[in-house]
């Protein structure tokens, strides 16, 4: 069984879509931190574009479910934070150009 890597986690998070915006959480800059420990436990710290996001619970559940699909993952914890608050500056520069921001 292969060791779970942070790259594997980042790539899987690209499959998690913010349905209101239609883009993945990585491109939007919603993922602040990814850690994989020696026992292949995954920790992700992420945010939403606004604390009032009506889809926050669904997006967090989707992220956890996708991460559990990675072969070898032991446990998954996805934590939500609003510190620091998200800003459009966190959006991938290529996506910003596509969106005109």
Automatic annotation (TrEMBL):
Domain MIP18 family-like: 6-79
Stretches of the chain forming a coiled coil according to its record: none
A Pfam family the protein falls into: FeS_assembly_P
InterPro entries from the UniProt entry: Fe-S_Maturation_MIP18, FSCA_dom_sf, MIP18-like
Transmembrane segments: none
Protein name: MIP18 family-like domain-containing protein
């Amino acid at each position: 069984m292969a060791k779970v890597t942070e790259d594997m986690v980042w790539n899987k998070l690209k499959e998690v879509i913010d349905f209101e915006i239609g883009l993945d959480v990585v491109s939007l800059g919603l993922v602040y931190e990814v850690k994989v420990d020696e026992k292949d436990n995954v920790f992700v710290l992420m945010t939403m574009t606004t604390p009032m996001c009506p889809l926050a619970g669904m997006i967090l559940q989707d992220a956890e479910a996708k991460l559990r699909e990675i072969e070898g993952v032991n446990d998954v914890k996805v934590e939500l934070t609003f510190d620091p608050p998200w800003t459009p500056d966190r959006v991938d520069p290529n996506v910003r150009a596509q969106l005109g921001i």
